Amino acid sequence: MIKGEKVRFDIHNILFSIYKFNNTLENTSIKKIIDKHKKEDVSFIFNVTLNSMRLHIHSLKILKKYIKKKLRDHEKILLISAITQIVFLDFKEYAVINCSVEISKKLKLYPALINASLKAIAKNKEKLKNIKISYNDLPQWFRKRSTSLTIHEKKQFLENFYKEPDVHIVFKNEEKLNKFDEGLIKTSSTSGFLIDKKDIEVKKSFIRGDWWVQDFSSFFPINNIEFRNQDLKLLDACAAPGGKAFQLLSKNLKVTLNDKSKRRIQTLKSNLNRLKFNPKVLNKDFIKFDKNEKFDFIIIDAPCSAIGTIRKNPEIFFKSKIPDFDGLNNLQQNMLEKAALLLNVGGNILYMTCSFIKNETVDQINEFLKKNNNFLVANFIFTEENYNFSKLVKNNLMITIPDKILNNNIDGYFAAYLKKIK
Prior knowledge:
Largest sheet: 9 strands, mixed
Radius of gyration: 23 Å
Mean pLDDT: 96
Low-confidence stretches: none
Strand content: 15-25%
Number of helices: 18
Oligomer: single chain
Number of strands: 15
Helix content: 40-55%
Shape: globular
């Protein structure tokens, strides 16, 4: 077996599983494939797998220049992975081509086609690195759902969606940040972008529980809130992996953390242990909460298409199956209605989604307000520290597409405060 062939074959099987069966890298069967490899191979697997998905639209455009016939799924995925390695990751051409040919034999494909097309692509790789895609190259379902974006926003998305995410971290307090001895581009007195993104989990301050990873767009809405009454009852209805709840816990507030997923609860508890927080944690379906249990502040980071996190989750465009928008929209509506029932008068719902698609964001708020005239959209609060980022908020709604601040990548996100006035 050629060196690297086995790991590349496993990469192919992972990509095929994601494409064909709509799995994610968190899927148990995929994790089993990854876990049997040594550390350096795991890094290689993630590098190739994630970038193959991020750049698959670019790779398909390259493929169309060299192959006119309709490709079978295995052929397409094998070639996408190989093109990513040769053109965009600059790996040794002969190793990629030889391994791809051997894998094609195992899959009973056409080795001659794989060999000839990859050699032709390798000869022109410097030119192909600069291949451009247009908005019309993006999946049809996404184009249909994103018609509300301006021409500028579409251009912005096109320039950003396939790039690797940056790492934004949040500290328990200002003192922890000030003691941090690594490079940081500050976004507030308790947060910033990591300059060295490598080996996060072995950094001493991470192990100590001084900070956690949380995208700026997720962090920003809660960073603005000041709770003057420490006895308020707060609920994070979909808490895992925990970032927003950790912001509140860092302020010594009484927060109940809930998540429906048992798997995500385990991640949440692991994070809580590292950070030395000990709140009440529930593993319930929020829709089935007892209607007599009342709260003063409820965070709903609702399940959604997650299109705003496409840099972290590039499988969104790569999968053959589109997001279940009807099911997601119904769930979002039901969660908002449940939160309205559980909220005390004078309290706030913070509705968030890691999406900028209109029917998951603005439409949900407008529909909720039509049905609930005892609610209004509350003001976003800006301090002197965070006023520079006020451009992210329009008409008291925070809505971002994958973008940059301080020359670092942030996710697409939506947030709105809904105040119960009677």
